[in-house]
Amino acid sequence: MGLGWYITRRVAWTFVVTLIIVSVTFILLSAAPNPEVAKAATQAALQGDNPAEAEERIRMIRGLDKPFTERYLEYVTGVYTLNWGWSTMNNEPVTKSVFEALYYTAQYSIPWTLLTITLGPIAGLYSAASQYSWKDHVATGITFFGYAIPNFFFGIVLLLIFGVQLGWVPVLYNTDVPVFSLANAKQLFLPIFVLVTGSIGGIMRVSRNESSEYMNADFVKTAKAKGVSRYRIYARHVLRPTMVPLSTTMVGQLLALFVGSSLLVEIVFGIPGIGRLSYAAIIAQDTSVVLGFTLFFTFLATISNLLQDIVYTVLDPRISFDDR
Amino acid sequence: MTDTPLLAVEDLTTTFKTDAGLLTAVGGIDFDIYEGETVCIVGESGSGKTVASESITRLVPSPPGEVTGSVEFRDLETVRELADAFPKAVFEVAEDGAAEDRGRPVDDGQFVVVEQRRNGEITRGYVDLARTPDKALRRVRGGDIAHVFQNPQDALNHCYTVGWQIVEAVQMHEDVSKGEARQRAIELLNDVGIPNAAARLDDYPHEFSGGQKQRVMIAMALVTNPDLLIADEPTTALDVTVQAQILKLLSELQEEYGMGILFITHDLGVVAEVADRVVVMYAGKVMERGTVYEIFEQPSHPYTRALLECLPGGGRAAAGIGGSLPDPTDPTEGCRFAERCEYAVDDCFVGGQPEEATLTDDHSVSCVYYHEGRDASVITGDDTTPAASGGTADD
Question: What is the rounded distance in angstroms from the CA atom of residue B290 to the CA atom of residue B296?
């Protein structure tokens, strides 16, 4: 069976996880007062109509008069067939809103994620290689600065300096520029920079501690005794065992950043991505959209955790899913 | 045995900067290893023998470690190779033909010392490993001087197959294809007695037993046919039956490959089995040295005698030697062993470690009782002990 079977079952498991989350959200949502119904009733009352009648009408249009079980089944099949409902805010299907926002989020998220997962471990390794020296302290100091300063605040400061004062980067995000162009790179530079400095600190720190454990390991001494060069020892013999515990931290931290910081950064820089969409949806009480990105993040979290488990077996052959 | 040693260690000192102060792990020791012979360094845990063995090719982490002294490696092939690769580092002692003047280079960057050339080719010389920079030292490590370590459980990287790790060792020193390197790895695994070597090559270290891992380590050490193998307690972590197998394997391989072995151990039983010559170390200093017969038949230093008495049936098996090692950050005056020595007199607590008194050509001992005006039979308990000749090692 082996790894293939394990992955198959884990993917199947993601469906179960989403089903549980979908069910819980559905029950909570049907218990909560529906803002759309309330709005229709208020409007009817203001225009002198019968609010009860208006309520009835809107319930019928939205299918809320059907029995609970039927609505639940309809809703669940909708989730799995990518029919996530109607966004009252944007007047379009929720899937369309989510995918459109995703298009902008991906443009800066993929670069900063890649930068963080390559630079973070390298910075940690660099620090560990010269532990307690001034190099270590400088590297630690810089990354801790990025870790400590709130992303949105740092973003505003940078935007003021480089956008307003120096005019090197555009202040307003322009959705019309092509994805692969200098103009796009220019306007995405600051958000990427802010997110990388914010995320690299924690990863660098874990990587520093983990790799310093291996810097003086017996097998590193063996490699040295074989005549292996310093840099090859770092790259081959230290980095690899370090990545095993580090990958757990990375997945957790990156997910937290995705959900939390992206939102603030998108608002500061005016990027119409997932973060700003979810923010707008919460303000506008557009429940279908809120549910849409909840589902998206659920998907992201389960897939990331699966990837992390697969990365384990690749990095450390002692971890095996053969008998699971 | 030729008259020039393969490796001549002089005044080897290894210190570590620690929060508690400067720690002197090895306090200036000398020893020689000749081609094809086995030299054992014995001493209790913490006496600095492992650090001494790792100081030869400077495996000790630096900083905080610092190695000084001179480590003359006299393998001609290595001298020629490094002289070719680093022409600026070559120091010529004398003109063609003459080999007598043994001057030392003043420039710290000159680590290849050529003592004699015939028709332009180096015929006598050495590489001073204590001053060789990392870049050049890498060619020696694993190439001419190989290591086998104490704990095979952790000495192999758990992330890579043993084949990958042996191939890496081969390719560090020879420009061969991966296929050829793999072929060599299979032969070596066969040589060290791993059954079904070709199939086991792609197994990971955790799929091998402790004894097999040590065999893999030995195979890895042999990839480039080293002149000197430094084996640091290679059998300590293994159970007794496996120990015997590994010792047998090492002596067979020594015969096959003709390499010198520096064997570090605290186990006198192992010493009796493998050693040609023995160096007894205590707290970073040499207490006594001699051939294996001299050490076992005529132990002359109180410490050596106490160690031997600790062997089962030696009369001290249950009691041991009272006390413990002195603080390495605060070296005491006089003999390092004085505080635990039952024969200690006032003279033992002044000056440095007593100069080595020569008993025979090979046998010398660092103890005040062998200096002029003292009676060494107090220690040896009989009067058949050869009289100390003069009192200093210079005789």
Answer: 9
A316 to B158: CB separation less than 8 angstroms, yes or no: yes
> What's the pLDDT tens digit per position in A129-158?
887 788 888 888 888 888 888 888 888 898
pLDDT tens digits, one per residue of B336-345? 888 888 888 8
DSSP 8-state code for residue B57? T
Reported ipTM exceeds the 0.90 cut: no
Nearest of B198, B180, B191 to residue B215 by alpha carbon: B191
B220 and chain A in contact, CB less than 8 A: yes
Distance from CA of B198 to the nearest CA of A (A): 19
- Residue of chain A whose Cα is closest to the Cα of B217: A222
Contact status of B141 with chain A (Cβ, < 8 Å): yes
Domain ranges of chain B: 76-143
- Neighbouring residues of B27: CB distance < 8 A, sequence distance ≥ 6: B13, B48, B283, B284, B285, B331, B336, B353
Provide residues of A within 8 Å CB-CB of chain B: 215-219, 221-230, 236-237, 240-241, 315-318
Q: Whole-angstrom Cα distance, residue A79 to residue A26?
A: 11
Measured in angstroms, the CA of B183 and the nearest CA of chain A are apart by 18
Split at pLDDT 50, 70, 90, the class of B96 is very low
Q: Indicate whether B2 pLDDT > 70.
A: no
Nearest to A123 by CA among A188, A229, A197, A15: A197
| Chain A residues inside the 8 Å CB shell of B85 | none
Q: Which residues on B lie below 8 Å from A221 (Cβ)?
A: 54, 59, 147, 149, 155
Judging by beta carbons within 10 Å of its beta carbon (0-12, 13-18, 19+), is residue B319 exposed, middle or buried?
A: exposed
Q: Say which CATH architecture domain A95-284 belongs to.
A: Orthogonal Bundle (1.10)
Chain region(s) in chain A for CATH 1.10.3720.10: 95-284
Q: How far is CA B288 from CA A99, A318, B5, B277, in A?
A: 80, 46, 19, 11
Are A218 and B154 a contacting pair at CB < 8 A?
yes
pTM given for the model: 0.78
